[in-house]
Design brief:
Helix content is 41%, strand content 16%. It has two domains: 60 residues, Orthogonal Bundle (Arc Repressor Mutant, subunit A); 186 residues, GAF domain (Beta-Lactamase, 2-Layer Sandwich), CATH 3.30.450.40. It has ten helices and eight strands. The strands form two sheets. The chain has a six-stranded antiparallel sheet. The protein has a two-stranded antiparallel sheet with strand order 1-2. A hairpin with a 6-residue loop joins β6 and β7. By secondary structure, the chain is of the alpha+beta class.
Length: 311
């Protein structure tokens, strides 16, 4: 009987190039991390609900919930929260929900800010081109200042604040807005622990409160290093037809370009531009030349050893 022949074992098949190519590559250690998500889900759901209510018009709870893609329970709780703040109204007689009057005020405020920015742009451009520096318009929203408009005189110049940037009112040119804000706003802000942006930022409530009186009497503000190290601002208030201060117009430039006596020499032009914008808004403004003539060589506060007009 013949012994069975031994069949030589076949070598394992080599993976095809296609299969090797299909093998997922190991993740790169240098792959960028996903951008952090700072959104708040509850706020997002509330905004979805409001947009749905704007589309449907006055509608029953079930219809609003369906349009917003949420449950009736969630829609009801959100609507009740919005109702407490005046953003939604329940018409119990008709059994429907609709947008509240609070949105009218917000819409008007947004429209006014847009109109103010448009009105300010020619004056910002005129001033910026005349002095060769970037110019800004700041408005107040509660206890914060917002950059509403700007003119960049030269693309090479640093922009210290983009449109929409916000910060508390206690530092830099924004403090001029605080000086003309309602007393309740001043009291509420000064009761907070104020952030220090730079070593030169003033955070002492007593000093700031006293300075607000000085600013109202003086009618302008020049600061250095309070928000950005190495930046100097020259600012003046802008008034509307009712005589209320609605904005601050300012020049902000690097300190290397704002060595004394330049900040002092720019003050009349800033005051004049603010006065022109005030008149364009229907307001009246003190003659810029006479206001600038009252400016002392130095003002109390941080002098930085430079003789700047600082408060």
């Amino acid at each position: 009987m013949r012994a069975p022949s031994k069949t030589p074992s076949k070598p394992a098949p080599r993976p095809s190039r296609a299969r090797a190519a299909a093998k997922p590559a190991a993740p790169s250690k240098k792959a960028a991390d996903p951008a952090p998500d700072y959104s708040i889900a509850a706020v997002g759901r509330a905004l979805d609900l409001l947009e749905a209510l704007a589309r449907t018009g006055p509608a029953p709870l079930a219809s609003v919930a369906e349009a917003a893609g949420c449950t009736r329970t969630a829609a009801f709780r959100l609507l009740r929260t919005l109702q407490a703040r005046g953003f939604a109204i329940q018409d119990e007689a008709r059994g429907v929900w609709r947008l509240g009057a609070r949105w009218t005020a917000l819409g008007r405020a947004a429209q006014d800010q847009g109109a103010l920015a448009a009105a300010a742009q020619p004056f910002l451009a005129e001033l910026g081109q005349a002095v060769g520096e970037n110019t800004y318009l700041l408005t107040r929203d509660g206890m914060q200042a917002e950059t509403t408009a700007l003119f960049q005189a030269d693309p090479a110049l640093r922009v210290y604040a983009d449109i929409g940037d916000r910060r508390l009112l206690h530092a830099g040119a924004a403090r001029l807005l605080l000086a003309y804000a309602p007393e309740a706003v001043q009291t509420q802000l000064l009761a907070q622990r104020l952030p220090r942006f730079t070593p030169a930022t003033r955070t002492d409530p007593a000093w700031i409160a006293a300075d607000l009186h000085r600013l109202r009497a003086r009618g302008y503000l020049i600061t250095a290093d309070e928000v950005h190290p190495g930046a100097v601002s020259v600012s003046a208030p802008v008034r509307d037809a009712a005589g209320q201060v609605v904005a601050v117009l300012c020049i902000t430039a690097p300190s290397m370009r704002m060595r004394p006596p330049r900040p002092r020499s720019l003050l009349p032009q800033v005051l004049e531009s603010a006065a022109k914008l005030s008149r364009a808004l229907g307001g009246t403004a003190e003659d810029a030349a006479s206001t600038a003539a009252k400016a002392p060589a130095t003002v109390g506060g941080t002098r930085q050893g430079q003789g700047l007009l600082l408060a």
